[in-house]
Amino acid sequence: MLNRNKLFPKPRRICAFDLLPIELVHVIFNYFLAQEILHSFTNVSDYVDSILFSYSSHRLNFSSISKSTFDLVCRYIRPSQVISLTLSNANDTSGQSDLFLTHFRIEQFIQLRSLRLIEIELDSLESIFSNLTHLTLLRSLTYETNGIKTKCPNWIYGYSGMIINVKSCFEETAMRVLPRLNVSNLEIDVAKKLPRLRHLTLGKSNYGEINRILSQVPQLRSLNVSLQGDASHIHHLSFCSQLNRLALKIDDSLISMTQMERLLPNLTQLINFELHAKGRRDLADGHRWKVLTEGLVTFNFKFQIYSSLDDLTLSSFRNEFWVREKRWYVAYKEEYLFSIPYFAPVEVHCSSVSLLSVWKTANDTSFYENVTKLNLSPCPSEDNIRTISTMMDLGCIQQLTISKLNHILFLNFYLLSMHCLHTLCINGSLSLDYIEQIRHFRFEQIRTLKISSNSKITDYFIEELLRIFPCVKHLYVSCLQSRAQMIRLIDGFQHLSSASFTITSWHQENERHCYFEPELLIRDSRRLTRGTYRCRFYRSMRGSQSYDIHIWIEEKVSSSSFFVLVLNAFHLKLNFSSDNCVG
Question: Which of 34, 115, 382, 568 yields a CA-CA distance of 20 to 30 A from 559?
Answer without folding.
Answer: 34
